[in-house]
Amino acid sequence: MTLPLSVPLSSRLRDVRGSAIRDLLALTARPEVISLAGGLPGTDLLPRERVAAALAAAVADPSAVQYGETAGLRRLREVVAAHESERLGRALDADGVVVTSGSQQALDLVARAVLDPGDPVVVEDPVYVGALQVFQAAGAALHPVPVDDDGMVVDVLAARLAAGLRPRLVHTVASYHNPRGATLSPSRRAALAELADRYGFLVVEDDPYGLLAFDSAPPVPVAAYGGRVVRLGSASKVLAPALRVGWLSAPAELLAAVERLKQCTDLCTSSLTQIVAADLLADRAWFAAHLDALRAALRERAAALTGAVRAAFGTAVTCSTPAGGMFCWLEFTDGTRPAELLPRALEHGVGFVPGTAFAVDRDLSGAARLCFASNPPAQLHSAVQRLEAAWRTTAS
Amino acid sequence: MTLPLSVPLSSRLRDVRGSAIRDLLALTARPEVISLAGGLPGTDLLPRERVAAALAAAVADPSAVQYGETAGLRRLREVVAAHESERLGRALDADGVVVTSGSQQALDLVARAVLDPGDPVVVEDPVYVGALQVFQAAGAALHPVPVDDDGMVVDVLAARLAAGLRPRLVHTVASYHNPRGATLSPSRRAALAELADRYGFLVVEDDPYGLLAFDSAPPVPVAAYGGRVVRLGSASKVLAPALRVGWLSAPAELLAAVERLKQCTDLCTSSLTQIVAADLLADRAWFAAHLDALRAALRERAAALTGAVRAAFGTAVTCSTPAGGMFCWLEFTDGTRPAELLPRALEHGVGFVPGTAFAVDRDLSGAARLCFASNPPAQLHSAVQRLEAAWRTTAS
């Protein structure tokens, strides 16, 4: 029983879009459905035995079950700083890192620390829905900039800035974009960092997928191109989501503000899971081998999914070619509307997310996001067969 | 290295008081200092071996390391609902509970869901600083009501309401108050619930300590007296803080809003630690025995601390008589100002929190909060000896 009481809610809450993806997860959780919908790393690819061993070792220390410092476990901040220094090509120390409960919390705290209601914020279109929700909850005025095969179209942003737009923040999933799969090109990264300096905004570089490069080194972070970049990272896609460990690096003043807000929000992240994350990230040989295996598995899954899609749909679909990350982006060229296809697809036992769920201003009614990370190749083949069957039924 | 960049911050952040307690923890973390400052359960009292066993069992399930539902693990919601039903004396089911990353997150999400900037909120004085920070971050207009030996002085609240105050929320740590140690009397609980119905506000009953009753059954919750009560609970004080598991029960509409905001804030709480919390709370025989041992240890510690304080300070101090929870409240009657005593106390190797850290409007410059939970009796005796020595030095 819940109470039937009517509670007046905050006016800003009305602006927060529900996540169609999270709602979909309820439907796709049925065992007979193969889900390409969630942004879940493959459960079979998570290093569960290594996590179990690290947990067993961690809990031997009494302080592992106690409260910890709000800014995070010192040792984890050190190992994250070491990893980040390598990515950035410049030294970052532990004081430049704050640990959060997943990178989603880092994004929420940055938004709360920086934004007043009505402040302009640039988001990508299509957008990571979790970012859209954060900025809506902060009462921001959203200014979408389109994403194409090379990531955010920075020329469009430059034109808006030249026309007078003065955002506080520009949010980007620059590497292996969610949902678009695209990666911001080096020249666009340089241009974005230069615009941030020129116009005085902060770039929030949301980077949970950067290490999941299939065939190359991870993309050079936007933060390597300039100083006005907050970087968000996460253990969820490279270790395990249930650790709920993320982090950010940012200017000192902003880090201090984030730490103060984190006190309000959850006091601290779990000492236990921070120890595990620190152990695994500090074990360089193991982590490198694990990442190699993970990247190889994801590359195989991406190839399986895109190959099956191209074989099944031919010219009726254009399909992105993932170079990393977890997502493939489809655009139907035959007039199919994925939002209308979805109910039939679920009847056929396959789930995905229609592009409309990620649209800010654009018409993405012909697009769909497919996650290739959650299922092994054979399942992905079956999923595409089911999707094709649903499509043929709908089309006829 | 951190970036020297100056970042303009949200105007509301300037209203958020830093936690003097968290700042103090840095000082009291020195190994030679016995800390009565933090609100930490005794590390030696945490059921670390049982947590270790539960972790080892939990991680055998692949889903334990994956993302989970935003509202929380179904089984944990069920077991919390069962416990809450017993406390409330009426049936609550799993849909009436949302799991959060500690009860601090529940408080933050409730505030964000309900409050618009400028909305009036009633807080206790002295106040739980984590609540003060949450309401400051939400931009609320704070209306403090004093706490005495029987908890919040509800007559004062009633008079303010009669005079026209119309709060959205009234926050109370009704059982074993932090920092005051007091428990809201049954008649005041009934009066508070009746006022909530009459004036249409929500009571937020923040209850991390209720099960830590020394000699009696836990206090009957305020929520048992009326329907306009949001209850917040936590595994931190009865199992382990590092689980970062809390929960709330609330009207359905508010729970849905909290769940939506939790998507923005951290997507979900750790599946792994939720499984552990569910296992331990569902093991009724073990949990009852553990609670009994915990309550007995806390009772012993409270007696040790208050006995030592009375022996050392005589009539120079009045000292509360804890009936549960973790805190003892001192008021110096000899003109000693604990904020001035503190630096000398730290030199003598003992830390505590001056009452001023918890003051909203009141003059609490003669008061201090001492936590008896973190240290065994012998340490508490030493701590009070050190405090007495510092006091005698200061007084001379």
From TrEMBL, chains A, B:
The keyword Protein biosynthesis does not apply. Residues 33-387 form the Aminotransferase class I/classII large domain. Gene3D superfamilies: Aspartate Aminotransferase, domain 1 (3.90.1150.10), Type I PLP-dependent aspartate aminotransferase-like (Major domain) (3.40.640.10). GO terms for molecular function: pyridoxal phosphate binding; transaminase activity. GO terms for biological process: alpha-amino acid metabolic process. The keyword Transferase applies. Keywords: Aminotransferase, Pyridoxal phosphate, Transferase. It comes from the Bacteria. Its cofactor is pyridoxal 5'-phosphate. Homodimer. PANTHER family: AMINOTRANSFERASE, KYNURENINE_ALPHA-AMINOADIPATE AMINOTRANSFERASE, MITOCHONDRIAL. Belongs to the class-I pyridoxal-phosphate-dependent aminotransferase family. This is 2-aminoadipate transaminase. It comes from Pseudonocardia kunmingensis.
